[in-house]
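hiii, so i know i said id send this last week but things got crazy w the move. better late than never?? heres the sequnce for the chain we talked about at the cafe, plus the structure i predicted for it. fair warning i was half asleep when i ran it
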Amino acid sequence: RDSQAFLRRVAADTWRGLDALADKDHGLPLDRVEFQRGSLAADTTKIGDYTSVTNIGFHFLAIAAAYELQLINREQALERLKTTLTALETMETFHGFFYNYYNTTTLERTSAFISFVDSGWLTAGLMVARQAFPELAARCARLIEQGDYRFFYDDKHELMSHGYYGDRGARSTYHYGVFYAESRLGSLVAMAK
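okay and structure toks below
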Protein backbone atom coordinates (compact mmCIF):
# COMPACT_ATOMS: atom_id res chain seq x y z
CA ARG A 1 0.00 0.00 0.00
CA ASP A 2 2.91 2.34 0.65
CA SER A 3 5.53 2.31 -2.13
CA GLN A 4 8.12 4.25 -0.14
CA ALA A 5 7.83 1.91 2.85
CA PHE A 6 8.07 -1.11 0.56
CA LEU A 7 11.20 0.22 -1.15
CA ARG A 8 12.76 1.05 2.21
CA ARG A 9 12.09 -2.49 3.44
CA VAL A 10 13.61 -3.99 0.29
CA ALA A 11 16.67 -1.76 0.74
CA ALA A 12 17.00 -2.69 4.42
CA ASP A 13 16.59 -6.42 3.72
CA THR A 14 19.10 -6.25 0.87
CA TRP A 15 21.63 -4.40 3.02
CA ARG A 16 21.17 -6.85 5.90
CA GLY A 17 21.87 -9.75 3.54
CA LEU A 18 24.91 -8.12 1.95
CA ASP A 19 26.33 -7.14 5.32
CA ALA A 20 25.83 -10.64 6.72
CA LEU A 21 27.73 -12.12 3.78
CA ALA A 22 30.91 -10.14 4.35
CA ASP A 23 33.89 -11.68 6.10
CA LYS A 24 33.99 -9.96 9.48
CA ASP A 25 37.78 -10.07 9.91
CA HIS A 26 38.67 -8.59 6.52
CA GLY A 27 35.47 -6.92 5.36
CA LEU A 28 35.46 -8.75 2.05
CA PRO A 29 32.10 -9.73 0.56
CA LEU A 30 31.59 -13.41 -0.15
CA ASP A 31 31.04 -14.29 -3.79
CA ARG A 32 28.28 -16.84 -3.48
CA VAL A 33 25.89 -18.91 -1.45
CA GLU A 34 24.65 -22.21 -2.87
CA PHE A 35 21.42 -23.75 -1.65
CA GLN A 36 21.43 -27.53 -2.10
CA ARG A 37 18.45 -29.64 -3.13
CA GLY A 38 16.07 -26.68 -2.97
CA SER A 39 16.60 -26.30 0.77
CA LEU A 40 17.47 -23.18 2.77
CA ALA A 41 18.69 -25.28 5.71
CA ALA A 42 22.08 -24.25 7.06
CA ASP A 43 23.46 -27.80 7.01
CA THR A 44 22.94 -28.10 3.23
CA THR A 45 23.99 -24.56 2.31
CA LYS A 46 27.47 -23.86 0.96
CA ILE A 47 29.01 -20.44 1.43
CA GLY A 48 32.01 -19.58 -0.71
CA ASP A 49 35.17 -18.34 0.97
CA TYR A 50 36.31 -16.19 -1.93
CA THR A 51 35.53 -12.82 -3.42
CA SER A 52 36.10 -10.95 -6.67
CA VAL A 53 37.24 -7.39 -7.14
CA THR A 54 33.81 -6.56 -8.59
CA ASN A 55 32.24 -7.79 -5.35
CA ILE A 56 34.58 -5.53 -3.39
CA GLY A 57 33.74 -2.53 -5.56
CA PHE A 58 30.03 -3.13 -5.07
CA HIS A 59 30.66 -3.61 -1.34
CA PHE A 60 31.92 -0.02 -1.19
CA LEU A 61 28.82 1.11 -3.08
CA ALA A 62 26.54 -0.84 -0.73
CA ILE A 63 28.13 0.70 2.36
CA ALA A 64 27.77 4.21 0.93
CA ALA A 65 24.12 3.50 0.03
CA ALA A 66 23.37 2.01 3.46
CA TYR A 67 24.79 5.14 5.08
CA GLU A 68 22.83 7.48 2.79
CA LEU A 69 19.63 5.51 3.53
CA GLN A 70 20.42 5.75 7.27
CA LEU A 71 20.54 1.98 7.64
CA ILE A 72 23.91 2.42 9.35
CA ASN A 73 25.51 5.47 10.93
CA ARG A 74 28.73 7.14 9.80
CA GLU A 75 30.85 5.40 12.43
CA GLN A 76 29.54 1.98 11.31
CA ALA A 77 30.15 2.83 7.66
CA LEU A 78 33.70 4.00 8.37
CA GLU A 79 34.45 0.91 10.43
CA ARG A 80 33.38 -1.37 7.59
CA LEU A 81 35.26 0.63 4.96
CA LYS A 82 38.46 0.77 7.03
CA THR A 83 38.38 -3.00 7.51
CA THR A 84 38.03 -3.60 3.77
CA LEU A 85 40.68 -1.00 2.89
CA THR A 86 43.13 -2.61 5.33
CA ALA A 87 42.61 -5.95 3.60
CA LEU A 88 43.10 -4.42 0.14
CA GLU A 89 46.29 -2.71 1.26
CA THR A 90 47.84 -6.10 2.09
CA MET A 91 46.55 -8.13 -0.88
CA GLU A 92 48.82 -9.07 -3.76
CA THR A 93 48.57 -6.94 -6.90
CA PHE A 94 50.10 -6.94 -10.38
CA HIS A 95 51.11 -3.65 -12.02
CA GLY A 96 48.93 -1.90 -9.44
CA PHE A 97 45.81 -3.95 -10.20
CA PHE A 98 44.16 -6.62 -8.09
CA TYR A 99 43.77 -10.18 -9.29
CA ASN A 100 40.24 -11.28 -10.03
CA TYR A 101 39.66 -13.57 -7.02
CA TYR A 102 40.95 -13.82 -3.45
CA ASN A 103 40.31 -16.07 -0.47
CA THR A 104 38.35 -13.98 2.06
CA THR A 105 39.97 -15.55 5.11
CA THR A 106 43.63 -15.82 4.05
CA LEU A 107 43.64 -12.91 1.55
CA GLU A 108 45.61 -15.09 -0.86
CA ARG A 109 44.81 -14.67 -4.51
CA THR A 110 43.00 -17.62 -6.06
CA SER A 111 43.28 -16.45 -9.66
CA ALA A 112 46.11 -15.39 -11.94
CA PHE A 113 43.84 -13.24 -14.12
CA ILE A 114 43.64 -9.45 -13.88
CA SER A 115 40.32 -8.35 -15.37
CA PHE A 116 39.77 -4.97 -17.02
CA VAL A 117 36.02 -4.93 -16.25
CA ASP A 118 36.40 -6.08 -12.65
CA SER A 119 39.19 -3.57 -12.06
CA GLY A 120 36.86 -0.85 -13.31
CA TRP A 121 34.18 -1.80 -10.80
CA LEU A 122 36.64 -1.82 -7.91
CA THR A 123 38.04 1.56 -8.92
CA ALA A 124 34.51 2.99 -9.20
CA GLY A 125 33.66 1.69 -5.72
CA LEU A 126 36.81 3.29 -4.33
CA MET A 127 35.91 6.57 -6.05
CA VAL A 128 32.47 6.55 -4.43
CA ALA A 129 33.98 5.80 -1.00
CA ARG A 130 36.54 8.57 -1.46
CA GLN A 131 33.82 11.07 -2.34
CA ALA A 132 31.33 10.01 0.36
CA PHE A 133 33.83 9.63 3.19
CA PRO A 134 36.58 12.30 3.06
CA GLU A 135 38.17 10.72 6.15
CA LEU A 136 39.24 7.84 3.90
CA ALA A 137 40.03 9.88 0.80
CA ALA A 138 43.81 9.46 1.02
CA ARG A 139 43.62 5.68 1.46
CA CYS A 140 41.13 5.30 -1.37
CA ALA A 141 43.17 7.60 -3.62
CA ARG A 142 46.35 5.55 -3.11
CA LEU A 143 44.56 2.40 -4.26
CA ILE A 144 42.94 4.20 -7.18
CA GLU A 145 46.19 5.77 -8.36
CA GLN A 146 48.31 2.62 -8.18
CA GLY A 147 46.69 1.18 -11.32
CA ASP A 148 47.42 2.72 -14.74
CA TYR A 149 44.66 1.61 -17.12
CA ARG A 150 47.02 1.86 -20.11
CA PHE A 151 48.10 -1.57 -18.88
CA PHE A 152 44.93 -3.04 -20.47
CA TYR A 153 45.19 -1.12 -23.75
CA ASP A 154 46.30 -3.16 -26.75
CA ASP A 155 48.08 -0.86 -29.23
CA LYS A 156 47.84 -3.43 -32.01
CA HIS A 157 44.04 -3.67 -31.84
CA GLU A 158 43.54 -0.15 -30.44
CA LEU A 159 41.12 -1.62 -27.91
CA MET A 160 41.04 -2.53 -24.25
CA SER A 161 41.77 -6.20 -23.66
CA HIS A 162 39.66 -8.38 -21.39
CA GLY A 163 42.62 -8.64 -19.07
CA TYR A 164 46.00 -10.11 -18.38
CA TYR A 165 47.20 -13.56 -17.25
CA GLY A 166 49.86 -12.92 -14.62
CA ASP A 167 50.99 -16.55 -14.56
CA ARG A 168 51.53 -16.66 -18.34
CA GLY A 169 52.73 -13.11 -18.71
CA ALA A 170 50.24 -12.65 -21.53
CA ARG A 171 47.36 -10.35 -22.38
CA SER A 172 43.97 -11.89 -23.12
CA THR A 173 43.33 -12.41 -26.83
CA TYR A 174 39.83 -10.99 -26.43
CA HIS A 175 39.01 -7.29 -26.61
CA TYR A 176 36.17 -4.88 -25.95
CA GLY A 177 35.22 -3.26 -29.22
CA VAL A 178 31.91 -1.57 -28.42
CA PHE A 179 31.17 1.09 -25.86
CA TYR A 180 27.85 -0.41 -24.74
CA ALA A 181 29.45 -3.59 -23.41
CA GLU A 182 30.14 -4.48 -19.77
CA SER A 183 33.41 -2.62 -20.19
CA ARG A 184 31.73 0.80 -20.29
CA LEU A 185 32.48 1.76 -16.69
CA GLY A 186 36.11 0.63 -16.94
CA SER A 187 36.49 2.67 -20.13
CA LEU A 188 35.10 5.77 -18.43
CA VAL A 189 37.37 5.25 -15.43
CA ALA A 190 40.38 4.77 -17.73
CA MET A 191 39.60 7.98 -19.64
CA ALA A 192 39.01 9.93 -16.43
CA LYS A 193 42.32 8.80 -14.96
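btw The chain has six helices and twelve strands. thought thatd interest u
miss u guys!!
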